[in-house]
Amino acid sequence: MSEYIVHSVQESDALALSLAKRIRGKAMLILLEGDLGAGKTTFVKALGKALGVKKVINSPTFTILKSYQMEDGRLLHHMDAYRLEGITQDLGFEEIFDDDAICVVEWPHFIRDQLPVDAISVQLEIMDETTRRFIFRGSNETLEAVVEGL
Fold it and tell me: 20 to 30 A Cα–Cα from 107, which one of 65, 80, 81, 149?
């Protein structure tokens, strides 16, 4: 587990850049948890930019999933599971999670049963208007090494 306190959007962006450097070229699942306004989508925007996404990254709240091409030609999948609360049927996300891509899921607890086990979990906590606490956890030793010392 690694914990970071950021005091601005710029510091959050720097944290996303640091993570991007460590996951570039790898298939990865990143789970973002936090209250509304904690900065989940802002973090994804910075991560995507650091991975070479040229398009504007917007919240996929109403579309559930948006995919963007990274500079290496692979995809960054951005999913918002907020509207999936209470849905119990299989939604067919296996293809997305099995893809050779980076997949970032906001509100993952709503689809927990459909998520692969191996992931980086990021908890965002609002401390005040501009300050956030980021807590990174890897689900295994390899992923824990990715988040150590961001």
Answer: 149
